[in-house]
Amino acid sequence: MEGTRGTMAVDWEERIDVKRLREERRERALERMDEAGLGAMLLLDDPNIRYVTGLAMTGGSGADHYSLLLEDGQVVHWDTADHASNQRFNCPWLADVRYACPALGNVPRASGRDSAREFLLETMAEGVASALEEYGYAKEPVGIDVGHAGLHDALESQGVDLRPAECAAVMEDARKTKTRDEIECLRQVAAICEAGFQAIKNEAEPGKRESEVWGDAVRELWRHGAMAQGGYLTSGPNTWPKHQANTTDRMIRPGDLVYADFYNIGYLGYRSCYYRTFSMGEPTQEQRDAYETARDNLYDVLERIEPGATTDDIARGFPDMEGEHADFYDADEHWQLTTNHWAHGLGLQLYEVPLVWRGLSPDHPIEIEEGMTMAVETQEPAGRQGVRVEEMVVVRENGVEVLSQWPVEEITRIDY
């Protein structure tokens, strides 16, 4: 495909094939599971559940939904009563949907009784063990993707041969490179974010509050079918350093820098992370210089990314401690400057493999693979304000393809 198409289903053009998306993801997980010698995996982490089931998990109160992926490709899924009833009706690719026992999270915490918590853990473990017995996997090694000691003990007391370390490695390996449909989901969410940037350009003006302009942008995101589960817009002195409250009721003024961070905007579950900076009127030379520095730092990193490159070499494209303005933060080590300059994987979660960061990569490098998707972000102060810029990319055979398309050469100027 390699080109943004519409968000609706049509019969006259190939678009994102959601059936193929589900099936190819599940096959990847099954291949890695077989290589790890597992007969089944119990998944409680929402992105992992969505990866193998296609269910739009949106958080929840704990282990009120979980899935068992079996070696032969069958899935047993447990969920709350209402969700399970809907899934039985709407998800014909799931043949076995059962009612969940919420043994982790808010329900046991709010129960106030250790006996209640033990009951929930035992009931959940009995249900999982029963399903393994029913499908003929009772004696097979079973992976699990959460490190909850109580749940582990409850499952093992049911005779489950639990293998937590293997499951984490299986799902990490399956998800770190993306299928063609996953890549198109990320391209599509980038396009939706650009509609949000345009709304900001259209609506921002002196006297409007940050929260009002952000509301205009989020309305546009939802209009295009996105799920907005994060992001913010800040202005003026709130742009450096990043404001702890994110979007506020501050009025935008002439001469302000404004930046928007569209992170955790989801399309079919695939998450964006996409910064752009705007100027209210003509930017000053100081603001132009800061933007040029941030943009050049970003593209220095992008030019280093290709299959076979390692994250320690790539991280050298990010600023050193002087370029990080460590004196401003009174910082001595790169690890103290989390999120300022780094690249992180994108997918069903905001942070997936790989991570490229001077705080870790020099001593703990990993190799870049074709098909990885990531966001690369930089920032730079401009007096009492600051600029941020970020691109979403996919690793191709000879480098990166930039999925984000909002103009990056200069600050976007907003005339009013």
Report the CATH superfamily of the largest domain: Creatinase/methionine aminopeptidase superfamily
Low-confidence stretches: none
| Helical residue percent band | 25-40%
Q: What pattern of helices and strands is seen along the backbone?
A: HEHEEHEHHEHEHHHEEEEHHHEEEEEE
Strand order of the largest sheet: 4-3-2-1-5-6
Number of strands: 16
Strand fraction equals 15-25%
Main sheet record = 6 strands, mixed
Number of folding domains? 2
Radius of gyration: 23 Å
| Terminus-to-terminus distance | 39 Å
Organism: Halobium salinum
InterPro entries: Creatin/AminoP/Spt16_N, Creatinase/aminopeptidase-like, Creatinase_N, Pept_M24, Peptidase_M24B
Protein name: M24 family metallopeptidase
Domain Peptidase M24: 184-397
Provide a descriptive summary of the structure in words.
With about 425 residues, the chain is an alpha+beta fold. It folds into two domains: about 20-175, 3-Layer(aba) Sandwich (Creatine Amidinohydrolase, Chain A, domain 1), CATH 3.40.350.10; about 180-415, Creatine Amidinohydrolase (Alpha-Beta Complex). It has twelve helices and 16 strands. It has helices at about 20-35, 45-55, 80-90, 105-110, 115-135, 150-155, 165-175, 180-205, 210-225, 285-305, 310-315, 325-330, and strands spanning about 40-45, 65-70, 75-80, 95-100, 140-145, 160-165, 225-230, 230-235, 255-265, 270-280, 340-345, 350-355, 375-380, 385-395, 400, 410-415. It has a six-stranded mixed beta sheet with strand order 4-3-2-1-5-6. Strands 7, 8, 9, 10 and 16 form a five-stranded mixed beta sheet that branches. The chain has a five-stranded antiparallel beta sheet with strand order 12-11-13-14-15.
